[in-house]
Amino acid sequence: xxxxxxxxxxxxxxxxxxxxxxxxxxxxxxxxxxxxxxxxxxxxxxxxxxxxxxxxxxxxxxxxxxxxxxxxxxxxxxxxxxxxxxxxxxxxxxxxxxxxxxxxxxxxxxxxxxxxxxxxxxxxxxxxxxxxxxxxxxxxxxxxxxxxxxxxxxxxxxxxxxxxxxxxxxxxxxxxxxxxxxxxxxxxxxxxxxxxxxxxxxxxxxxxxxxxxxxxxxxxxxxxxxxxxxxxxxxxxxxxxxxxxxxxxxxxxxxxxxxxxxxxxxxxxxxxxxxxxxxxxxxxxxxxxxxxxxxxxxxxxxxxxxxxxxxxxxxxxxxxxxxxxxxxxxxxxxxxxxxxxxxxxxxxxxxxxxxxxxxxxxxxxxxxxxxxxxxxxxxxxxxxxxxxxxxxxxxxxxxxxxxxxxxxxxxxxxxxxxxxxxxxxxxxxxxxxxxxxxxx
Amino acid sequence: xxxxxxxxxxxxxxxxxxxxxxxxxxxxxxxxxxxxxxxxxxxxxxxxxxxxxxxxxxxxxxxxxxxxxxxxxxxxxxxxxxxxxxxxxxxxxxxxxxxxxxxxxxxxxxxxxxxxxxxxxxxxxxxxxxxxxxxxxxxxxxxxxxxxxxxxxxxxxxxxxxxxxxxxxxxxxxxxxxxxxxxxxxxxxxxxxxxxxxxxxxxxxxxxxxxxxxxxxxxxxxxxxxxxxxxxxxxxxxxxxxxxxxxxxxxxxxxxxxxxxxxxxxxxxxxxxxxxxxxxxxxxxxxxxxxxxxxxxxxxxxxxxxxxxxxxxxxxxxxxxxxxxxxxxxxxxxxxxxxxxxxxxxxxxxxxxxxxxxxxxxxxxxxxxxxxxxxxxxxxxxxxxxxxxxxxxxxxxxxxxxxxxxxxxxxxxxxxxxxxxxxxxxxxxxxxxxxxxxxx
Lengths: 440, 440
Prior knowledge:
Two copies of one chain form a homodimer.
Chain A: H1 21-28, E1 32-36, E2 39-42, H2 44-63, E3 67-68, E4 74-76, H3 77-83, H4 85-88, E5 94-97, E6 103-106, H5 111-121, E7 130-139, E8 154-164, H6 167-187, E9 192-196, E10 206-213, E11 219-224, H7 242-253, E12 257-259, H8 265-269, E13 276-291, E14 301-303, E15 309-311, E16 313-319, H9 321-331, E17 333-334, E18 337-338, E19 349-353, H10 359-374, E20 379-382, H11 388-398, E21 402-406, H12 408-412, E22 416-420, E23 426-429, H13 431-439
Parallel strand pairs in A: 3-7, 19-20, 19-21
Antiparallel strand pairs in A: 1-2, 4-6, 5-6, 7-8, 8-16, 9-10, 10-13, 11-12, 11-13, 13-16, 14-15, 17-18, 21-22, 22-23
Helix pairs in contact in A: 1-9, 2-6, 2-9, 6-7, 10-13
C-alpha cells in the first residue's frame, strides 16, 4: 500500500475527549473516528487490525469444533419475554418499535436467538455436541460511554454457544472453549490469565474471565507469578479428548488468580512473596456455563439414547474484537505510539523512502516493496514527499513491528536501515539481507 | 468438513411462506432461517456463500482503488437533518430513541456519514481522488417484507462512496466502479448487463443498474443480444487511465438495454429481430453520480490547486451481498436444487461415501477428502450412515459443482464416479484421475 494514496488521517493534537491511552493513540493514528457517543467508524488502519483479530479468533473457534453462523442484529422482543430477560435487562438494551409498532431490540447478546434456532432443528442427541458462534455487532446503551472502543455502545462480539445433552458434555464443551481462548490470546501476542468470575446478567454456575496484564488496565488483579511462564496448549491439541482437556483446565486453574471482586487476601498472602503478582488487568474474554437457564424456559430439548426428552445444557463464550484492539494498544505502546504484536499489526513493515524523487532511494524502495510483498508481508510504503522526521513520527505512531529506512547516505554504501519498533534496535543491511532479517 | 458433524438442517417439506424459488431452496438447503419478518439468520452453508461473495467484491473494489472502512449501523438523526433526508425518508427508515432520548436511526445507506468523515479530515485536492467502501448490515423497514433475502429488512450492503474535486474526476471514479462491477459479477459466474436507471431516494444525474437475466426475475428487461457475448475487462485493466475506462464504459452502454421503467419500445423495435432480447431480470448492483447533492449541504469542501474552496463531487455504488445470494439461486437452479457457480459455491465438492463402514469405501473417501483439500478445494464429506438416495438428494439440493460418489461396486474396479452438478454428466475414474478431473 502506498501511503500517498492511503486514507490515514493522523492527528497532530491529542484529542481532549480521550481519557485513556488506547483511545488517544487510536484516534491519533487514524484508526477510528467517533460518529456519535460511544459509536465509532473504523478507518482503514483500524479495520485491518480488527480483521486480523477476527481471523485468529475464527481459526481457533473452528479448531475447537465451533461452527460459524451469522445472526441478525435486530431481534424480536417476544423471544426475550420467553426467557424472562426482556424486562430484567434494563436501560442498556436498545429497544425499538418498527413501523407496525412491533417491539424489537438491538441484540446485546444472543442466548435466546441461538436457542431458538437450535430448538427448531435439533431433535436428537445424535446432533450433539453442537457449538455455534458468530461475529456480529451488538449494542449496549451505556449511560456514559467512554474509553473509545474499549467500552463502546456499538461493539463487535464473537459469541459462541454450546449445546450438550448433559452437564458432563457441557463441561467438555466449556473446556474446549477454555483452551481455544488460551490459544487465541497467545497468538495475538497476549498473556491472558483465566480468573474465576461473577456471571452477571448471563447467569450460571461456572464462569471465567480472561485477563491480560497492562499497567493502564481498568481493574486490579492478583495472581501467582508462575502463570506468566505457562506455555499454551499446542495447535494439535486433541479437542475430542475430554480427559485431556480437563487436565489442561485443572492445570490452568490450580494456581491463585482473581479479579478484585473475587479477591481473597488470605489465600493470596499464603503465596510466597516472590510469587505474588498484584497488577492491573483488562478483561478480554468471558466464558459461562449456565446449564438449562435458557433451554428450560425456551423448551429446547432433544431425545436421548434412552428415548426420553432431555433439556439442553448450554454455555456461552464471548470475545469482543473491537474492545480487544484497544486492549492490545493498552498493553503494547510507548511514548511515540503503538507497538503492534506481529500477528495483529495492520502492516508488518513501514517502508520509509527518505528522499522521494532520488533515483537510488526510489529504486531501492520499489525493490524492497516488491520483495517483501512476495514474501507475504503487508507493507505500507511511505512515498510521500515529506521530511524524514514526519515519516519517522508516522511510522512510530502507527506501530508497524518493522521499519525499513531507505536514505541516500546509507544507500551509497549499499545499505538500508532496519529498525525493530518494539526495541528500537537498528541494523544496517543490504536490501537482500533486510528482507531476510524481517522474514526470519 | 464432515457432514455428520456439520450443522446443515435441510428441510424435507417446502416451506409454505416462501413465494419464490430462491427463498424455498435457501430454506430447504439449510442456508438461512427467518428470525422475524424480513430478518434472517445465516446458517453455516449460507454464510459460506455470503463470504465467498464478499471476498470477490472486496478484491474488485480494491483493484479499482477503493479502500475499506467500516461505519457503524446506528447513526445520529442530526446528520440526516443536515442533508434534509431525515424527514424525507419516510417509514422505511428504522428510527430509534436511545436512553437519553436522542434521535438515532439504523442506517439504510451511508451518504451522510461518509461525507461527515471525509469533511472532517480531507482539506486539499492532493488527498483526492478518494473512494471509501464498507460492507455492513443495513435496515429498511419494508412494509411487507417478502422473497427471503432478496428483499429483507436487515440486509448486507457493500456501499462505496467516491470523492473528487470536479465532475470530470467524479466521472473517472464512476467509470472505475462501472468496470469493477462488470468484473465482480462475471467472477461470480453471472452475466450482468448495465442499464440506465432512475436514481430514486439517492438522487443524482447519472445512474446504472446491473441486471442479471433469470427466468424467475422480478422485472421485465429489454436488451441487445450482443451483450450476452461481451467479454468483461481483464484483471490488468489500468484503472488510472481515464480515457481507457471511458472507452470501456462507452462500449458497454452503446447498445440498447433498459428495464421496463426506462423502456422505449420504438428504439427496441429498431433492433433487428434476431438481436432483440426480452427477458426477466434481477437487479444486483446500482451505481450513482450525484455531484454535490450531499457535499453542498454538509459543506464538504477542499482547497483546489487554484487556492479556492471546491465542493466535492460524489458518487455512490451499491451491491447487496445478501440479496446476491438469492439472485444467484434464482439464476442457477433446477428441480433438484441449487446449482452453484464454482466461484461462490459453499463447497466445491460433495464427497459421497455410499457405504459408510465398508473398509474400501471409507479408505477411498478419506484419500479423496485429503487429496482434494490439499489442492485447495472445500469438500463436504457425506460420512453419514444414510442410504445412497438420501445422500444424492442432499448433494443435489445444496448444489456443490462437483459430486464424487464412492460406492463398493465401482470401487471393486478401482473407480469412483465424478458427477458435474450443472450438466449431470458422469464419469468413472480412478481416485487420482478424479482429483485431476476436478482440478482441471
